[in-house]
Every structure is written in C-alpha cells, then in structure tokens.
C-alpha cells in the first residue's frame, strides 16, 4: 500500500538513511548533494562515486567540489554536514563501476537510496564511450542494487531527449523495441574493434540522432527490465540550466544550453548561430530538477507493494514558452547593462537557418578574425586560443543542430501534479513556483550568475563597462 503522501514529511523519509550517488561531481550531482544536506539534514551519509583525475585523489576532488560557491549557504549554516559526504573510488565507465570489493560490500550493507545521476552528455562521443558511461554503468548499478537488502528506491536520471523519435513524449515507460537491445549493444561495443565501430555507428544508431540519446534510451530499458526486482523510478529532465533561486539565484557551472550561447555571444565569440529561430527551447532550472529528483524518489520510496516504475518528465511545459530568437534578443539587452569581461568583438549573434550562409559567415566572422587575432597574440607573446575556441564553437553548433531545428512536447502533468499535492510542510523546502516564473527575470539572473559563478567575474566593474562601450 502507498501511504498518504501528505502525511509523510520528505526530510523524515531521508532521515537516518545512507545514500549512494553516481555523477556527484557533475552539475546535477553537486546540486543534489547540496540540497540533500541542507533540506534533509538528518540524512545518515552520502556516498559519492568519484574517480581519481588529473593527479587528484578522490578526497582532493571531493574537497574541490565542496569548495564550490554553490555550497556557501550550507557552509555558513550547517558546516558540520560536509562530514556526511564520503568519497567512494570508482568509475562509471569501468566494468562493475570500478569498485573494490571492500567498498562494494560497504554500499551493499548500508545504502537504502540510490541516485543514478552519472552520464556523459557529449553529443559527439564515440559509441563505445557513450555505452560504457551511460548504458553499461546503469546495468552494473542495477546488479549492485539487487544485492542491497535495505534498498527502498533507485532513481535513474534519464533525459526527455531519449525519445526524440516521438513528437510528444509522455510520462510513461515506453515498451522495448527490437532496435534497442541493450544486452546485444553492450556485447558489441565490448568486442568489436574501435575503427569498425566508428564506421558503423551512424547505421547502428538508426533513428536516434547521436550516441547520447541512443545510450540513454537503452539505459531506460535496463531500468525497465530490472524493475521486477528493484523499486525504481525514472525522471527525465530536459536541458538543465542555472538555478532559479535555490540556494542562490543564477548558479551554473557549465556552458551548456541557452546561458552558454548567451555567454558566447556576450564575449563576441559566437557571432552566427545555425538554428531555426522560431524553435521553442525546453529547459529546466537545476533547482527545479533537483527538487523533482528528491520528491519523486521519496514518492517511490514510500510505496511498499507496487512493482511499477514511475516515470516523470521535468520540462518547461506549462511554463511560459520562449523561442531561441527571443532568448538571444533578451540576453543581449541584459549584456548592455552587465557586459562580460574581455569582450573581443561587439556582442551580437545572427541566427540563420541556411547552412551555406552559416558556413560562409563562420569563415568570415569566426575563423578569419580568430586566425588574425591569434597572430597578434603570438607577436605579443600571449598563448593563442581563439582559433581553438572557434573550432569548438563550430563542432558544438553542428552537434546541437538536430535540437536547434526540431521541437518536441514533453508532457509533465504527473510531475506538476505531484508538486501541487505536496503538504504545506513539504512545500517549505521543495515547492517550485512554475506557475509564476518570470522568464525575463530568470535569464537576467542566469547571466549575472554566469559572470559570478562560472566566469568568476565582478558585477559592475567600471573597466569592463568602458571596454564594452569602446
């Protein structure tokens, strides 16, 4: 039976429980750790899967994560809560998550809640890497979860774009398709030569636009197949971008989505964009996505007999919509008031649907000026970087083109109903006011947040304003 949701206090559900998070070093993962510690203060401990990287141990990487400005509010109010975060050495791309036997046993004994947040979100990643990072890791996590005696919920973070072949994506678990056989795919990428795999990737993906969406689709099938033995829930965020206001407004730590596009334009680096300007961009503030993750895991965890896998879409459907062209225009109106440091060209981005106009414009407005300025930088003894940046911009625009020319409807009625039905106590920490979000104000906060948290720039710097006016 399911208890009455209104009678169950969300922080009380998490109290005393041990949590295991994959992807804790990423954008979503950081925000999830912060919100759990701040809003569910009685959680027992949070185990975070981390791989050593760039000469840093897992403890050093964890310290670097927790030093992020995102955690400043928590640091000032509950500094002792950081002791609850415990790094576990591993790697989602490795078989069995790269866990040693001792850590594996520790997780099996203690963990009762799993958040599978780990994912490689590169759209141009090789099929092998995408399958290892996004698909095989999900299988290995499910195998680990089956051994956990205290497990009450496994939440898997998918993506609304795992179903790009459907114009309308419902909040349901779609049935298996013979074109999406996760067991066969894992065996193929484990055994076939890299060169052969690269050549056959496009054919193997079929209707899916890239390895990311394909591998995330397969991961959903794994959750579906293991759902008989595991209390599982799937949440599908769309494009996750900066916070609305929790714990601070505008926090972001990556260049993905419309905020990254506006930063590129604001710096004078992105002067032409290949896109349909009328496309409605679907996005989710990261604090909305995190609240959705914590709430839907709680809702699944208070069930005791139901074997179904709940599915929720976390999208901006039923919020005020905004086209790509509109986002660009309002973004540049903010940049006049809050310009970026070290702008290399007058900010402004032209959007074109024509690939040939885009290609010629890239050569004239991106590549040739970059080569010229890099030459000047070399003469001045400064490391040239602009040509490399412009190559990345071009590759990124090409990789994103499928999403910049197509539009979907992501139904999110189930998630919004769940938000609306929260008790007054639960709404204090977990309400998201989707009905009254002011998108103009939101993107303004996002641009300011990008300067503060992503670029580490000062607001209202007189020299920056003078440089912009010049």
Distance between the termini: 67 Å
Count of DSSP E strands?
A: 13
Please state how the strands of the largest beta sheet are arranged side by side: 3-2-1-4-5-7-11
Count of helical regions: 18
Key descriptive features of the protein:
alpha/beta; seven-stranded parallel β-sheet; 13 strands; 11% strand; globular
Structure description:
The structure is a single chain. This protein is an alpha/beta fold. It is 48% helix and 11% strand. The strands form four sheets. It has a seven-stranded parallel β-sheet, sandwiched between helices. Strands 6-13 form a two-stranded parallel sheet. It has a two-stranded parallel sheet with strand order 8-10. Strand 4, helix 6 (127-146) and strand 5 (153-157) form a beta-alpha-beta unit. The N and C termini lie far apart (67 Å).
Topology:
Blueprint: H1 10-14, E1 18-22, H2 27-39, E2 45-50, H3 58-66, H4 72-77, E3 85-89, H5 101-110, E4 111-116, H6 127-146, E5 153-157, E6 168-169, H7 182-191, H8 194-205, H9 211-226, E7 232-237, E8 239-241, H10 257-266, E9 272-274, E10 283-285, H11 286-301, E11 310-314, H12 324-337, E12 350-352, H13 355-379, H14 386-404, E13 409-410, H15 413-420, H16 424-430, H17 439-454, H18 462-469
Parallel strand pairs: 1-2, 1-4, 2-3, 4-5, 5-7, 6-13, 7-11, 8-10, 9-12
């Amino acid at each position: 039976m399911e208890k009455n949701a209104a009678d169950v206090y969300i922080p009380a559900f998490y109290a005393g429980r041990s949590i295991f998070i994959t992807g804790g070093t990423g954008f979503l993962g950081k925000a999830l750790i912060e919100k759990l510690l701040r809003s569910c203060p009685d959680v027992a401990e949070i185990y975070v899967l981390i791989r050593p990287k760039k000469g840093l141990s897992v403890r050093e990487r964890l310290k670097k994560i927790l030093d992020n400005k995102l955690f400043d509010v928590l640091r000032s109010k509950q500094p002792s809560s950081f002791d609850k975060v415990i790094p576990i050495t591993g790697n989602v791309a490795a078989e069995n998550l790269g866990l040693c036997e001792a850590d594996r046993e520790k997780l099996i004994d203690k963990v009762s809640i799993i958040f599978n947040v780990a994912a490689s979100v590169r759209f141009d990643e090789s099929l092998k890497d995408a399958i290892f990072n996004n698909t095989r890791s999900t299988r290995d996590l499910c195998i680990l979860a089956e051994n956990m005696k205290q497990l009450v919920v496994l939440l898997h973070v998918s993506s609304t774009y795992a179903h790009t072949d459907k114009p309308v994506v419902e909040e349901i678990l779609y049935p298996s398709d013979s074109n999406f056989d996760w067991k066969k795919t894992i065996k193929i990428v484990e055994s076939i030569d890299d060169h052969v795999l690269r050549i056959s990737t496009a054919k193997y993906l079929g209707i899916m636009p890239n390895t990311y969406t394909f591998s995330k689709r397969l991961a959903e099938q794994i959750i579906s197949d293991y759902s008989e033995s595991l209390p599982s829930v799937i949440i599908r965020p769309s494009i996750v971008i900066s916070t609305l206001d929790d714990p601070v407004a505008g926090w972001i730590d990556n260049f993905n989505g419309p905020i990254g596009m506006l930063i590129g334009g604001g710096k004078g680096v992105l002067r032409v964009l290949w896109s349909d300007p009328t496309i409605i961009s679907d996005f989710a503030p990261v604090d909305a996505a995190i609240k959705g993750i914590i709430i839907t895991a709680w809702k699944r965890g208070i069930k005791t007999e139901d074997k179904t896998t709940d599915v929720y879409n976390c999208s901006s459907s039923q919020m005020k919509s905004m086209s790509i062209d509109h986002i660009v225009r309002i973004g540049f109106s903010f940049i006049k008031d809050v310009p970026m440091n070290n702008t290399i060209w007058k900010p402004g981005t032209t959007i074109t649907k024509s690939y040939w106009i885009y290609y010629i414009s890239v050569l004239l407005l991106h590549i040739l000026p970059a080569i010229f300025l890099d030459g000047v930088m070399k003469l001045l003894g400064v490391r040239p970087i602009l040509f490399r940046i412009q190559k990345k911009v071009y590759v990124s625009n090409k990789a994103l083109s499928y999403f910049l020319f197509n539009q979907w409807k992501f139904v999110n009625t189930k998630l919004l109903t769940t938000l609306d039905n929260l008790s007054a106590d639960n709404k204090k920490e977990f309400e998201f006011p989707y009905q009254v979000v002011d998108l103009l104000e939101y993107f303004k906060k996002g641009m300011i947040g990008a300067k503060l948290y992503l670029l580490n720039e000062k607001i209202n710097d007189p020299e920056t304003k003078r440089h912009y006016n010049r």
